[in-house]
Structure formats: C-alpha cells, structure tokens
Amino acid sequence: MQTMGLQTMSNIGGMAEEIVVGRGDPAYLAHAYLTKVPVPAITPFIEAYCPPGGVVVDPFAGSGMTGVAARITGRQVRLSDISVLGRHIGSNYLNMVEGHEFTSSAQAVIKRAKDAVGKIYEVPCSGCGGNGQLAKTVWSVLVRCAGCEKPVNYYHSLEAAEWSKPKMVCPHCSAHISSKLDRVGEQPVVDYVNCACSPTQREQPAVAAPSIDVDGLDFPHVEITPDREMYRASALGKSGYTTVASFYSPRNLRTLVALRDEIRAIEDRALSQKLLFAFTATLTRASKRYQWSHKRPLNAANQNYYIAPVFYEWNVFELFERKTTAVLKADDWIRTQAFTRNVDADTVPAEYVTESAAELSLPDASVDYVFTDPPFGSNLFYADMALFQEGWLDGFTDVGKEAVIDRSTGTKRTAGRYEALLTESLKQCRRILKPHGRISMVFGNSSGKIWAVVQRAVAAAGLRIEPEKIAILNKGQRSVKGLASGFEDVATLDLVLTMVPQDDAEASFQQPTAEAVAAATRELVGAAGPASPSHLYLELLRRALREGWSVADLDLQTATATLLDDGWSIDPKTGLLVEPE
C-alpha cells in the first residue's frame, strides 16, 4: 500500500508554498485565544512582503500575534480589533516588562491575596495527619438515574465499571448511567495534596470543600444569555451554567477576586496590566471547564462552554504563579528572536486600538503590508467566548460589529452581512496600502459557500489574489472527528491568500464541471508525499483559485467523494490518505 501526499515545499518568490509550524513557542503558550496564528508562521510573510522598518497593519488582530511578529522583525505595527479581550491580550504581548520587577510584584500580589483569603486551600493530609496544601480536586457531577431517579455520582459509577463507560450502572437499580442524564449536583471525589511528609503529591479521598459566602464578593455578575450562539451550542440552559461566576467553585471564585483586587492596587500601570494578563490566562484552567480523564487531564476547550461530568478544581495561586513565569518566558523569547535579527524588541513602535476593520482610522496609502486573520464564517464566536475573561476586565466586545455568521435562523448576522463586512474591511485595507504593497489573509473553512464569499469579497474590494503566492498554513492540527469517521468533515488547515490591488477586478468566475473537479482531485492525489483529506481539499481550493474557478460548490466532502469512489482510505493512526491496493 502506498501513502498519498503532495509536493508543496517548492519556493515561489522566496515564500514556501506550505508553512509548517508548531504551537509550542513561549509566546503562543503564554495566553490562550481562539485560532491564534503562531508567530513563526507570520514572520516569513512580513520579511518577504514588508521592507525593513516598514509599517505592518492587522485589522483583525485578535491576540496580537502579528504585532509580536512585526516587533521581532523590526517593523512598526498597528493592530486593531473590536474585541476587548483581544486588545487586552495583544497589548500585553507588546507590553514588555523588566523581569525582576515583575517577579517581585507577582510575589507581593500572591502574598497579599493569600493573607486576604486565609487557609482556603489547607486540607488534612491522610499520610501524617497534619495539614497540607491542596493542589487540585477532582469533582464529579451527580446525575439523576433514569430508572430509580436517585442521584448517582458519575465518577464512582465509572470507577465501579473499571473506567468503561458502556458498563456504567446505577448502584441502586442497575440502570445504565451516562453523561446525558440530568445533572442534579456536584461532589468532590479526589484531592491531590502537597505535604512536607511526602516528596510527591499525595492522592487521597476528597474532604468537604469549605463553605464560602460569595454573595458579597465583587466578582463578574455576567449572564451568558439565550441569544448567544454559544448558549445554545453548549446547552447552557440545560446545564444551568448561565453566568460566568457559575463556572467557578466558591473557593476559586473567592481567590480570583482577591488576586484581581491586589493586581488593581498596583500603581505601576505596565506591571499591573502585565499581571492582569497572567491573571486572565489562568481563568479557564481555574474553572470547571478543565476536563478530567482517567489517563491524563484533557484541558479545557476554548471554543465552547462545555463542563465534563468529571472536572478539576485547581489551586488558583499555583496556576497564577506558573502563568507569571510563562509570561516572562514569552517576553524573553520575543527579545531573543528579535536579537537574532539585530532588532531591539523594546524599541520597535507598536500600538493596539479598538476599532472595526470596516472603519479603519488610518490615512490613505500609509502602510506597507497587511497581514490578517479574519473570523472564519460560523466556525467560532469570539465575543461569546470572550465573556469568560471580559467579565473580569473593563468593557465588553460589541457583538453587533462581529464578522461572523450565526448558525441560528432569523438573526441579523447573516451570510450576506458577513460578506459585506469582509468586503468593506478589504476595501479599507486596499485604501491604506502604499503603492506596490500587499495584503495577506489567513482563511480556513470546509464549506465552498463560505470560500465563495471570500472569493467575491476579494474581487469586490478591488483586489486580485496572486495565484503563485497562495500558501498552505499547517499548524499541526487534526480532526479527531474525522479520524473516527474515516474522512474528515472539518478542514484542519488554512490557506494564506496574498493579494494586490487591481482596478478592474470582477467577481466573475468559471463554474468547473464535476469531471474537471474529479480530474484535478486525481491529479493532486497522485503527487508524492503524505497528506490528509484537509490537505487535499486545500490543494484543490488552491488549484481552483489559480484557475479562476468558482469555489462555491467545492466542499471538503466534495473533494473527498472522488477518493471514496476510487477506494482510497485513511490511516486511523496518522490521519493520512492511503491508496487502494
């Protein structure tokens, strides 16, 4: 059997056709944000298309990775976005602090917050009988048995079934137990304790969580309302987690309030904002969204509000201290990357403003290069997920300006509105571009209809995609859903489209025949090297864009249908396409 793949590493004008990057550098890891583009994926484009000392703009800046890449390469940068959370994160990546001062301030904040909350994480050690410090607690939901209607501890039921979900039964009536049953409560089941009597963390049965009155605390009284797409997608009405505060245990909510208050009290704004950056980076892990697994922790999904039937409650002080260390590592990494290019990262001009990409407040012909990563249609809802952090900040994103397509019918955020916003945003990018400047845009979707929106918006904005400069961005993602089904249903790679102004651009594209699409698919699949269905799909999209085809009917499923008919399969271990025998 032969494993199929594509030759995509030929250089065109100094830029590789495929950019392969990891997501493990210190800047990427310092703070989570939806669909971040790693800095090493952006720097080659800036160095190729922006002159040294030139000006880079990103109007959909999000977490500000374009700003970091521009600073590393010595280019001035101007970032903008409507996202309050995005500006908070992106501004603090650019807020470079002195390491010793930051560490001293962090330690002082932790000490004062600990004094304020008392012995909130102190628990008896089962080994020596003394007191230890709680590192984390495993919590289980209680579900209502469909047979006898009694509450059942999900974790204990799973444990009794020797960690096999199909074998889970009610201890009272032996009816089948699953995570889909109604949740009627939560219980701590396992504590992990640090104690002087043991060199390693001790695992022991959980003690009762302390009773903490949170009613008088200044925590985010923020509702996640039914009109939010993520309210419906995460079934918050059924789970009852309809406020930001409900995602935290009382113990962790009290600790987070104490830390936030101490950070606010710091007079040095740069240090205070950088500490708040570390604080917001801990919020998801400090919540009930951090999933437990019998084998290993599964972390929390940033794109939804799901709470697993078994979850962790982590010691917030330990999380925050670790994150402050990660923040300094990011600063050091940025400075080091800049130094290797003879750039002093601390002196490169950079700013982040809050404004819509469709209303840029920049002069005509004032920037050398635009690199941007707009929202991908209805894939993700940034403002909905940002509520979780923005509740702790000052202000909320204006969802009325968000460039997304609602999944629900009868709403104002339609595909037509999305196309209009994207078109106007690209027109603004064209307006501010200097002669001979370029615009690069990252985009990914498994729907041909959404790709057609992009295709039309580019032409309507008076831009032309440079066919020889279309690159694949490979961040090492894979679709678990796709591996289970045999062929992926979700594209896990992106294209980077580089564009130049063209006055006579028209939104007229040739409709390819089914035969032409099938022939192109077979030609691409015959290239050497490994590839996934997503990889093949983007190769087909790239071919279509280069040939001037309409991409409206080129869904991922369409691209793989020919291979299914020809007997191709997918290797379940690698996720790569395999030729039939």
UniProtKB/TrEMBL annotation:
GO terms (BP aspect): methylation
Keyword DNA-binding: no
Keywords of the record: Methyltransferase, Transferase
Stored SUPFAM superfamilies: S-adenosyl-L-methionine-dependent methyltransferases (SSF53335)
UniProt keyword annotation of Endoplasmic reticulum present: no
Top-level taxon: Bacteria
Similarity section: Belongs to the N(4)/N(6)-methyltransferase family.
Protein name: DNA methylase
Annotated source species: Wenjunlia vitaminophila
Lineage start: Bacteria, Bacillati, Actinomycetota, Actinomycetes, Kitasatosporales
